[in-house]
Amino acid sequence: MTLNRRFTLVARPDGLPKPSDFALVDEPVPELADGQFLVRNHYVSLDPAIRGWLDDAPSYLPPIELGDAVRVSTVGQVEASKAGSIKAGDWVMGLNKLEHYSVAAEGGFTYPIDANAVPSVTNYLSVMGAVGLTAFFGVNDVLKPKAGETFLISGAAGAVGSIAGQLGKLAGARVVGIAGGPEKCARLLNDYGFDAAVDYRGKTVDQLSAAIGEAAPNGVDMVFENVGGTVLDATLLHLNREARVGLCGLISEYNSEHYGTRNLWQLIVKSARIQGFLVSDYLHRFPEGGAAMAKLVAEGKLRFDEHIEEGIDNALPTFLKLFEGKNEGKLILKLV
Amino acid sequence: MTLNRRFTLVARPDGLPKPSDFALVDEPVPELADGQFLVRNHYVSLDPAIRGWLDDAPSYLPPIELGDAVRVSTVGQVEASKAGSIKAGDWVMGLNKLEHYSVAAEGGFTYPIDANAVPSVTNYLSVMGAVGLTAFFGVNDVLKPKAGETFLISGAAGAVGSIAGQLGKLAGARVVGIAGGPEKCARLLNDYGFDAAVDYRGKTVDQLSAAIGEAAPNGVDMVFENVGGTVLDATLLHLNREARVGLCGLISEYNSEHYGTRNLWQLIVKSARIQGFLVSDYLHRFPEGGAAMAKLVAEGKLRFDEHIEEGIDNALPTFLKLFEGKNEGKLILKLV
User: Fold this and answer.
1) Most exposed among A99, B80, B120, B183, judged by the fewest C-beta atoms under 10 Å?
2) Which residues, 6+ apart, have CB-to-CB distance to B207 below 8 Å?
3) How far apart are alpha carbons A235 and A231 in whole angstroms?
């Protein structure tokens, strides 16, 4: 009998997730009911948002239940189907679980994709997936760059940040990235075409603010915020009048008590705003965003990187790379 | 010779302003140049914003210079004029100084007002002035209430907050106010027609959050934020999806190191925004706002209170009432 290996949550993490918060369990592959299909998950997207779902806190999705496998986006191939529109062998993507086999239902959040339309099917978890669309809608809908504006991106070497910066460049903005360490800063300039890079590592808020001031001497008109903490506090000191901050993530705060942001007063004196957003706000516009991203990729206008690790037994150390800043590009776990 | 008594800044306050930060000086009334006029200041508006101008920090107006009189809005009567469009005896209002006589220039920020159009000329420093317009543009332009929405206001018994709440009621919102102490909360319900009141005094963030949850069981769609600190942190936990927070002031933070706001992550999970604003953003729309406020006042649709103290020698203790929450209505100092 084929077993389904699953990466399950057994305790809610206090701070950084640790091995005892999870268990690998082998269970029988479930039987299908009418309208369902069985997905063999080939690739799993490891995203910062998962950390929030591990907590028992009100959010935009319910907490992952104790004992259940961890919720993740996957790309996989249909192994068996009792759904009319889906047949064995189809490639699909969707919001499934970190397990070898997921059961999905027709009309749910798992849908067919065209594996031949992209260089690698993993692209559906990076530039063509939620990551690319987060950057697309964050930049083009929340921030709306104008040519000549200064656009600051934190977590800029990350999967979302690196695409956001390139979209800003395509819109004619001057793009400044904040990243951790000289190697990542070099990648911003050399691989992603940023105009300037700031290394936040080892800097106080004042030192980071000084570095941002050098990299963005005319102030900042737009911010794509992925990090929060001292990075956001230093950034707020450089906002221009009517600046807009798109708040996409606060990855520096996800494993600790939330940082206390001290410089919100800058929003008043600059008549600036912070706009939180989720890519799921744009579900109804995914076709539009997906088509736009596909065109940019086909035209070779976007550079994107994927960092692929292997094996469900390797799930936790791979996930933790996100919080150590150790991934280089979109972090993906290969299961098959 | 007539002397001009002036309330001057001699040291930049560290925390709450103290007597040694200021000096009362008597100087000759200045001579007028062509195009100038001399204003006998009758009433002075004491506003939280003044605290920011005492610091040597970049803001939307330059810091008040050491040795100069403190910048304030005043209403007064023209004593002498070398300006063609202004004559002695005219009532004027403008951004002047805390002194018996200010020199203003034609085409500047001091302009004639119709003293007969209002029950008291002090109304130009309250409901008809920056206070009323801050509430007007904050509610109608930044927040744009829709009927049936829940509207939370902090500093709700204050000059701006009490008007903002009434404007929200006129727009059909359910209005909840946060204020300090049972007397102020009673005034919200009895004098200003709020639907519910929350007393923040003596409450932790968790306790305040619980009280907000009781007063706004369906969550909060709009916030008019005047206070910041723990009040804002508790408020953020109750935002509905796509809630908007108009950030008008952070009075709880003006005399101390800025509070660290921990709940910004709520902006992401609720796709909500914080929009800072200044009434001066709307200078070009003051005629529109002034006319709208005048109509509401004439129709008896707005209740507003003025708290008037007397004498320039009393300037500092009067100003400090703002930070002690001891003023009941718009705080005004009468000089003549």
Assistant:
1) B183
2) none
3) 6
Chain B residues at the A interface, defined by Cβ less than 8 Å, are: 52, 58-60, 228, 232, 247-250, 253, 257-278, 281
Chain A nearest CA to B309, separation (Å):
29
Chain B CB contacts of A60 below 8 Å: 269-270
Look up the ipTM and state it. 0.88
Token pair for residue A243? Answer: 């600046």
Cα–Cα distance measured from residue B42 to residue B333, given in angstroms and rounded to the nearest whole number: 8
pLDDT of residue A243: 98
Single out the residue of A315, A276, A284 nearest to residue A71, CA to CA.
A315
Range A197-222 average pLDDT: 97
Region at A193 (left for phi over 0; alpha for psi -120 to 50; beta for the rest): left
Question: What integer pLDDT is reported at residue A283 of this predicted model?
Answer: 86
Task: Indicate the domain borders of chain B.
Answer: 3-126+305-334, 130-280
Q: Specify whether the CB–CB gap between A24 and A5 falls below 8 A.
A: yes
Work out the minimum CA distance from B150 to partner chain A, whole angstroms. 20
Query: Is A261 close to B263, i.e. CB distance below 8 A?
Result: no
* Tens of pLDDT, residues A250-296: 988 888 888 999 999 999 999 999 999 999 999 889 889 988 998 99
Residue A191 burial (CB count, 10 A):
17
Predicted pLDDT of residue B145:
96
Inter-chain CB proximity B60 and A269 less than 8 Å: yes
CA–CA separation, B79 and B336 (whole Å)? 13
- The burial class, CB within 10 Å (0-12 / 13-18 / 19+), for A243 is buried
For chain A, which residues lie within 8 Å of any Cβ of chain B, measuring from their own Cβ?
Answer: 52, 58-60, 228, 232, 247-250, 253, 257-278, 281
The answer to whether A276 contacts B272, with C-beta atoms less than 8 Å apart, is yes
Superfamily of domain B3-126+305-334: Medium-chain alcohol dehydrogenases, catalytic domain (3.90.180.10)
Q: Is the pLDDT of residue B283 over 80?
A: yes
Cα gap A243→A224, rounded to integer Å: 11
Write out the H or E segment, with its range, that includes residue A317. helix A315-324
DSSP label of B203: -
Task: Tell me the C-alpha to C-alpha distance, in Å, between residue B198 and each of B187, B189, B235.
Answer: 12, 10, 11
Question: A265: which chain B residues are within 8 Å (Cβ-Cβ)?
Answer: 228, 250, 253, 258
What's the CATH class of domain A130-280? alpha beta
Q: Contacts of residue B267 in chain A, CB cutoff 8 Å?
A: 247, 274-276
The CA distances from residue B229 to A205, A263, A273, B131, B253, in Å, are 20, 12, 18, 22, 7
Q: Hey, are the CB atoms on A271 and B276 less than 8 Å from each other?
A: yes
